[in-house]
Design goal:
By secondary structure, the chain is α+β, with helices and mostly antiparallel strands. It has helices at residues 3-16, 46-49, 97-111, 134-143, 230-237, 250-259, 267-285, 298-316, 323-335, 341-344, 346-380, 388-398, 402-411, 418-432, 448-468, 496-511, 523-528; strands spanning 20-21, 59-67, 83-92, 119-124, 150-153, 159-160, 167-178, 197-210, 216-229, 385-386, 415-416, 474-479, 484-489, 516-522, 542-548, 552-555, 569-579, 582-590. Strands 1, 2, 3, 4, 5, 6, 7, 8 and 9 form a nine-stranded mixed sheet that branches. The chain has a four-stranded antiparallel sheet with strand order 12-13-18-17, with helices on one face. A three-stranded antiparallel sheet has the order 14-15-16.
C-alpha cells in the first residue's frame, strides 16, 4: 500500500458516505495565536465545529499537513515524526457515534483489509464528573469487537478538550493495531509505549460544553472529528517495523546514506533525525505563505531548531556542507505531485536552507570552542551543571538551540540549568522584542475584539495594495485580543507618509460604517469576481467570499463583523522587516 493509494481510498470512501472532499489548509495557522503550526485536521475547521456554517456542508473529509513539536525529542524511534499527514472526516452537527465508529471499522477491515482480530480499541472510562462512554462500547461490540479488546481508559487517554478553560469537548475512541509483539508486562495495553500496539485512528465526539465552574453540560450540537496518520497506517499495512521504512522515507534515507561517510551504532538515529527534520523544514519553508523563515522566536525558532539539529546529526554522519539542499530536493521530488506548492517554492526553500546552514556553520566552530572551554572548566572544578546564563550565551551569541546544548552537555556527563536559561531568554525577549507569548491550545479566540481585528486585516490588506501596489500579498497573520500582526510581501521599508496613508484609508472605511457581506461560491468564480484568493484549493471548491462595501473582497474563513462602525480607530504601532522581501505590521483598534 502506497501513501497515494491510501489517500485516494480514504477520500473516496468518505465521499461515498456523503462527505465533500475539501482542500487541506496551510501549515501556518491563520489568525490563531494559540499554536505555531497546524497540528491536526480539525485545527483549520474550528470555526465550523463551533457553529459557523461550512460552505461545503456538514460532512467533510480531507488530507491535512501537520507539524507537532511536542514529540520532537522522541524523533528517531519507530513512529514519532514532527511533520505528518492526517486523514480526517468530520460531522458538523450531522451523524454521530454510530456512523463514525461503524465507518471506521468498515474502512479498516473491508477497505484496508486489516485483520479484525488485530484491532483493539480504547474508550473513555468516566471520571465521576462525566459518565463512561458505554454508548461507544456497545457500538464497538455491535460491529464485532469483543469486550476483551475494548479498553476503558481515563481522561488523559480518551478525552479531547476543551482547548481553553471552557468550551466544546468530549470523549474519544482510539483504534490500535496489535503488532504481534509480546506484552511488555501484565499491564501492557493500547497506549503503552513498548510498541506492541500502534494507534492509527482516533474518533473524537464533541458532545459536552465545559463551563467556568468546571462542570460539564451536554452540547446543543454534536460534532465528530477524526484523525488517521498516513505514515503510521502505511507502515502497519505493509508489515514494516518503523515509519522510516515506508516509501515516503526510503528515498530520503537513501540520499542521506549516499552522502554520509560515517556509519556506527548511532547512525540509525541520526539518519532518522536528519530525514524527519529536513522533511519538516522543507514543508514549512514550502508552505506558500513564506512567513516562516529561520529565526529566534516562535515558529521561526522551531524551524531554526529543526535545521540546526539536522546539521548537527549530519555532522555525526560525516555529511558534506550543502546537504540540506540535496535532501530538500529529494523531499520536493517525492511530494510535489500531491503538494505542488513545494515545486512552486523550490527556489525559496533551497535559498533559506543554504543561508541557515551557512549561518550555523559559521557560528558552530566558535560556539563549540566556547562550550569545550566552559565544560572543561566545570570538570576541573568538580561541577556538573552548566549555568543558564552560559546556555543562553551559547544560544544568543553562537546560535546554539538550548536542546543542542543539553545534548552536548549530556555527552560530557553534565546537566544544564534550564530554568536559568528560560529566565534569561524571557528577559532577552521582553527587552528586545516586546512580543506576546505563544499559548498551547488549538481553538482560536473568536471574541468581539479578535473578530474586529480580523476584519481590520482585510481593510489593511486592501489599503496596502492601494498605497504600495498590487504586488502586496498577505504572507501571514496572527491575532490576539490586544493586537493584529500582518506579514506582507514588499521589498522595502515603508515611509512614515505611506504608513499614515494606510492608516487614513482604513479609518476612512471604518467611519463609513460599511457593511460586510458573505457569499458562497466556487473558488474559480471567486477569482473571476475579483476576490483576492490566497487559498490554493481546487477550482470548483466552495469557499466563502467576504465583501466590505466596494472596498475589499477576499476569500476567507472568518470571523468578521457585520458593520465596520463600532470597530474603533485603527493605528499602526510598528512596521518592520519579517524576512527577505516580507514586511510586518503590528496594529491595534482603539476605542
Amino acid at each position: 500500500m502506497t501513501a497515494d493509494k491510501l489517500r485516494e481510498l480514504y477520500l473516496n470512501f468518505f465521499k461515498s458516505k456523503g462527505h465533500t472532499i475539501i482542500s487541506g489548509a496551510s501549515l501556518i495557522p491563520e489568525n490563531d495565536p494559540t499554536v505555531l503550526f497546524t497540528t491536526a485536521g480539525m485545527h483549520p475547521l474550528v470555526p465550523y465545529l463551533m457553529g459557523e456554517k461550512h460552505p461545503a456542508g456538514t460532512r467533510l473529509t480531507d488530507v491535512q499537513k501537520c507539524v507537532r513539536t511536542g514529540d520532537i525529542d522522541s524523533v528517531g524511534d519507530a513512529s514519532h515524526l514532527t511533520f505528518f499527514e492526517m486523514l480526517g472526516n468530520w460531522s458538523l452537527d450531522d451523524y454521530f457515534k454510530k456512523e463514525a465508529i461503524s465507518w471506521s471499522y468498515e474502512f479498516l477491515t473491508q477497505v484496508l483489509m486489516f485483520d479484525p482480530e488485530k484491532l483493539n480499541v480504547t474508550v473513555f472510562a468516566g471520571d465521576g464528573v462525566v459518565p463512561a462512554d458505554e454508548e461507544a462500547v456497545e457500538i464497538w461490540k455491535g460491529v464485532g469487537i469483543p469486550e476483551e479488546r475494548i479498553f476503558r481508559l481515563p481522561k488523559e487517554d480518551n478525552w479531547w478538550g476543551p482547548a481553553g478553560q471552557t468550551g466544546p469537548c468530549g470523549p474519544d475512541t482510539e483504534m490500535f493495531i496489535d503488532t504481534g509483539k509480546e506484552k511488555c508486562s501484565e499491564n501492557c495495553r493500547p497506549g503503552c509505549r513498548c510498541g506492541k500496539y500502534v494507534e492509527i485512528w482516533n474518533d473524537v465526539f464533541m458532545q459536552y460544553n465545559k463551563k467556568e465552574d468546571g462542570s460539564y453540560e451536554p452540547l446543543g450540537r454534536h460534532n465528530v472529528d477524526t484523525g488517521m496518520g498516513v505514515e503510521r497506517t502505511i507502515c502497519m499495512m505493509n508489515g514494516l517495523q518503523t515509519v522510516y521504512e515506508t516509501e515516503l522515507f526510503v528515498p530520503i534515507i537513501s540520499k542521506i546514506r549516499e552522502l554520509a561517510t560515517v556509519s556506527d551504532g548511532d547512525s540509525t538515529r541520526s539518519e532518522r533525525i536528519v530525514a524527519d527534520h529536513m522533511r519538516t523544514a522543507t514543508f514549512i519553508l514550502g508552505d506558500g505563505k513564506g512567513s516562516v523563515v529561520p529565526g529566534n522566536l516562535g515558529a521561526n525558532y522551531v524551524l531554526r531548531r529543526l535545521i540546526r539539529s539536522a546539521v548537527r546529526h549530519a555532522k555525526k554522519l560525516g555529511m558534506p556542507v550543502g546537504f540540506t539542499e540535496e535532501i530538500a530536493d529529494v523531499v520536493i521530488g517525492e511530494y510535489k505531485h500531491v503538494y505542488p506548492e513545494l515545486a512552486d517554492n523550490r527556489a525559496h526553500i533551497l535559498s533559506e536552507l543554504h543561508l541557515e546552514e551557512a549561518r550555523f556553520e559559521k557560528t558552530l566552530a566558535s560556539g563549540q570552542k566556547e562550550f569545550d572551554k566552559v565544560s572543561s572548566a566545570l570538570r576541573d572544578h568538580g561541577q556538573t551543571q552548566l549555568s543558564g546564563r552560559t546556555a543562553f550565551k551559547l544560544y544568543d551569541t553562537y546560535g546554539f538551540p538550548l536542546e543542542m546544548t543539553i545534548e552536548l552537555a549530556s555527552e560530557r556527563g553534565l546537566t544544564v540549568d534550564v530554568d536559568g536559561f528560560n529566565q534569561a531568554f524571557e528577559k532577552h525577549r521582553s527587552v528586545s522584542h516586546g512580543d506576546g507569548g505563544t499559548f498551547k491550545g488549538g481553538l482560536a479566540d473568536h471574541s468581539e475584539l479578535t473578530t474586529a481585528l480580523h476584519t481590520a486585516t482585510h481593510l489593511l490588506h486592501r489599503a496596502l495594495k492601494n498605497v504600495l501596489g498590487e504586488h502586496v500579498n498577505q504572507k501571514g497573520s496572527n491575532i490576539t485580543p490586544e493586537r493584529l500582526r500582518f506579514d506582507f510581501s514588499h521589498p522595502e521599508k515603508m515611509t512614515p507618509e505611506q504608513i499614515k496613508q494606510v492608516e487614513d484609508i482604513v479609518n476612512e472605511q471604518i467611519s463609513k460604517d460599511l457593511s460586510v457581506k458573505m457569499e458562497v461560491m466556487s473558488l474559480d468564480d471567486a477569482k473571476k469576481s475579483g476576490a483576492t484568493a490566497l487559498f490554493t484549493g481546487k477550482y470548483d471548491e466552495q469557499v466563502k467570499v467576504y465583501s466590505i462595501g466596494n472596498f475589499s473582497k477576499e476569500v476567507c474563513g472568518g470571523p468578521h463583523v457585520e458593520h465596520l462602525g463600532g470597530m474603533g480607530h485603527f493605528r499602526i504601532l510598528k512596521e518592520e522587516s519579517s524576512s527577505a522581501g516580507v514586511r510586518r505590521i503590528k496594529a491595534v483598534l482603539e476605542k
